[in-house]
């Protein structure tokens, strides 16, 4: 095919829409696409799906009959997404450096923070999708278990909202770690090791007062188990603000202050 | 249109790009030539807003790159052909770029054809690509937005001779339609074959700039005699600046007329006297590679 069939004859005759800034909705769609179109992203998400099904099957087959309520099955179904999906978020950001695609991404979107915002939005969309999948799989599992437990199908709306917050914030924290560290392996290791380390520090008596505010293991534990009380909410929100905010701020700072490439 | 004005970039106190000023006009292909480590990539990164210059400024299409609302539709950039996600398929990599800048995805298939990546290649993961294939993918990526400016860092690296000829045709055609091209290379013969203007950089500084003809006419005179030592003494005696040339003789920073006269005055019989031309350009480049290039490492 000749070049002229593809391109305008005169390059300086501006076509419409050429100087239109890509909108956030479009950038978010692109980031969602980047999450699934790499080999690692694809297999990670398939693994999450597989583990979700597995968690439901195990709960339904091996659980006590009073555990076979929708609420309990769903809570278990959501764990693989809550634990593994953030790795997709980490890789979405860190791979821009480890695979050096930042050289393309930032050439197309020079306002670098906008790209991070799009990644965060894409992460939240993926978290919502994962929650829907977990709901569906859990519902199927509960139906198949045909349990006689009382309130088998009840799921407090507040708890559902908390579950969504749990998966979505985990995703945002992952993206923050990727942005702050700009390297896949350290970001993944720290993402998993730091909460464990903090929780361990909590056993030191003098630190206990601080740790219960900043440790995700403690402050976020009620998020997926009970409809939280006011004081539990305060602790959870403080911990979440810290875990999402600090890495994201470091990431944005590095991104805007430093050269890329 | 690309304009670099007094660009300076320091790393750890050392200026790797210093006071670099040049201009690329629409309708031209400018070759940015310099040995490894001369500062070509750093300069191009400053032009594209990836590195912040310590002093000076760069403009593309009349403004700073990072102020362009949708840069991909105006400037096609290839800064590093290996900067692609290895786990992504070739076609998908282009589709992402198209979607980001708001170009219909059908254009991706046209471009794959145009850069010579067939269906099988487009379906492969980029990890499996050879360097030449990555360069073709990178050039397609730069062309998706149908830009008016192309900035390509070492695009001929890894291309076979057929690929070089193809790229020459592509960039020539692009320039003929009013486009502006800046491409870098560390090999004289590459830019020589593709560019019509040269900007030569050594150790961070521009050492020569102009059309190839201009540079060749400035390249001095190549002179040889059977008695090389005598010729050397005569040239020095006449106050002419001369250096030993590759393959014998001297490169003299003067017109052939003046060199001939000096030789006659000193009674030395010449076997060769002519404008240095390509040999001069090669010598200039060779000097850069051996002296400044080493310094820059
Ligand atoms: N981020 C960096 N930090 C320190 N030195 C750098 C950095 N980037 C490039 N350099 C140095 O700057 C010099 C010019 O590099 P570069 O622009 O890549 O040269 P070229 O592209 O002409 O080969 C080299 O000596 C290189 O080591
Ligand atoms: Mg380089």
Strand content of chain A: under 5%
Proportion in β-strands of chain B: 25-35%
Give the strand tally of chain A.
Answer: 0
The first-to-last residue Cα distance of chain B is 31 Å
Please, what is the oligomeric state?
heterodimer
Largest interface, with Cβ-Cβ < 8 Å? A-B, 45 and 54 residues
What is the overall number of helices of chain B? Answer: 12
Please tell me how large the radius of gyration of chain B is.
22 Å
On the 0-100 scale, what is the average pLDDT of chain B?
91
CATH architecture of the largest domain in chain B: 3-Layer(aba) Sandwich
Helical fraction of chain A: over 70%
Helix amount of chain B, in percent? 25-40%
Q: Low-confidence stretches of chain A at least 5 residues in length (pLDDT < 50)? A: 1-5
Q: What's the level 1 CATH class of the largest domain in chain B?
A: Alpha Beta
| CATH topology call of the largest domain in chain B | Rossmann fold
Structural class by helix and strand composition of chain B: alpha/beta
The neighbouring-strand order within the major sheet of chain B is: 5-6-7-3-8-9
Outline:
The complex is a heterodimer of chains A (261) and B (297). Chain A has helices at 3-6, 24-36, 39-62, 70-98, 102-108, 112-145, 157-181, 184-201, 208-214, 216-219, 230-257. With 261 residues, chain A is mostly helical.
How is the secondary structure organized here?
The complex is a heterodimer of chains A (261) and B (297).
Chain A (H helix, E strand, L loop, with lengths): L2 H4 L17 H13 L2 H24 L7 H29 L3 H7 L3 H34 L11 H25 L2 H18 L6 H7 L1 H4 L10 H28 L4
Helix pairs in contact in A: 2-6, 3-4, 3-6, 4-6, 4-7, 6-7, 7-8, 7-11
Chain B lengths: L1 E10 L2 E11 L4 E5 L6 H8 L7 E6 L14 E4 L11 H12 L4 H9 L4 H5 L7 H13 L5 E4 L8 H16 L3 E6 L2 H7 L2 E6 L2 E7 H6 L3 E5 L2 H10 L4 E3 L5 E3 L3 H11 L3 E6 L2 H13 L1 H5 L1
Parallel strand pairs in B: 3-7, 3-8, 5-6, 6-7
Antiparallel strand pairs in B: 1-2, 1-4, 8-9, 10-12, 10-13, 11-12
The site of adenosine-5'-diphosphate has 11 residues of chain B, from helix 1.
């Amino acid at each position: 095919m000749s070049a002229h069939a593809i391109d305008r004859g005169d390059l300086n005759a501006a076509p419409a829409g050429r100087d239109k800034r890509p909108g956030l909705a479009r950038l978010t769609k692109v980031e969602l696409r980047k999450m699934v179109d790499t080999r690692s992203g694809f297999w990670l998400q398939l693994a999450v799906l597989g583990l979700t099904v597995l968690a439901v099957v195990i709960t339904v087959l091996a659980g006590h009959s009073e555990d076979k309520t929708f609420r309990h099955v769903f809570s278990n179904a959501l764990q693989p997404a809550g634990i593994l999906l953030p790795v997709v978020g980490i890789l979405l950001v860190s791979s821009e450096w480890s695979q050096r695609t930042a050289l393309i991404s930032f050439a197309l979107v020079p306002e670098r923070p906008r790209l991070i915002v799009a990644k965060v939005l894409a992460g939240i969309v993926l978290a919502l999708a994962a929650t829907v999948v977990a709901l569906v799989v859990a519902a199927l599992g509960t139906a198949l278990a045909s349990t006689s437990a009382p309130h088998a199908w009840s799921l407090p709306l507040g708890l559902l909202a908390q579950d969504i917050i749990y998966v979505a914030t985990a995703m945002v924290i992952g993206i923050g770690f990727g942005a702050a560290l700009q390297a896949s392996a350290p970001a993944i290791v720290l993402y998993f090791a730091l909460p464990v380390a903090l929780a361990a520090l909590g056993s030191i008596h003098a630190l206990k007062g601080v740790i219960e505010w900043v440790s995700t293991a403690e402050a976020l534990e009620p998020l997926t188990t009970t409809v939280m009380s006011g004081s539990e909410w305060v602790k959870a929100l403080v911990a979440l603000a810290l875990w999402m905010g600090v890495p994201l701020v470091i990431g944005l700072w590095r991104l805007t202050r430093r050269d890329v490439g | 249109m690309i304009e670099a004005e007094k660009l300076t970039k320091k790393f750890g106190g050392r200026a790797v790009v210093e006071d670099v000023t040049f201009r690329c006009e629409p309708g031209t292909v400018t070759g940015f030539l310099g040995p490894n480590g001369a500062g070509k990539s750093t300069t191009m990164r400053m032009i594209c807003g990836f590195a912040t210059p310590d002093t000076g400024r760069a403009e593309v299409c009349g403004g700073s790159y990072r102020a362009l609302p949708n840069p991909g539709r105006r400037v096609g950039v290839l800064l590093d052909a290996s900067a692609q996600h290895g786990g992504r398929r070739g076609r998908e990599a282009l589709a992402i770029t198209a979607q980001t800048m708001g170009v219909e995805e059908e254009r991706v298939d046209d471009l794959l054809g145009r850069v010579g990546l067939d269906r099988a290649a487009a379906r492969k993961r980029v990890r499996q690509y050879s360097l030449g294939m990555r360069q073709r993918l990178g050039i397609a990526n730069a062309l998706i937005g149908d830009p008016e400016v192309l900035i390509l860092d070492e695009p001929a690296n890894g291309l076979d001779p057929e690929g070089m000829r193809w790229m020459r045709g592509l960039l020539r055609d692009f320039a003929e339609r009013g486009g502006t091209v800046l491409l870098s290379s560390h090999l004289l013969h590459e830019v020589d074959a593709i560019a019509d203007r040269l900007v030569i950089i050594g150790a961070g500084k521009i050492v020569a700039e102009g059309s190839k003809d201009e540079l060749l006419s400035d390249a001095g005179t190549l002179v040889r005699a059977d008695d090389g030592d005598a010729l050397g003494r005569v040239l020095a005696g006449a106050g002419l600046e001369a250096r030993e040339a590759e393959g014998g003789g001297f490169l003299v920073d003067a017109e052939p007329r003046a060199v001939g006269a000096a030789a006659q005055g000193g009674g030395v019989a010449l076997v060769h006297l002519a404008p240095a031309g390509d040999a001069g350009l090669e010598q200039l480049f060779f000097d850069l590679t051996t002296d400044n290039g080493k310094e820059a490492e």
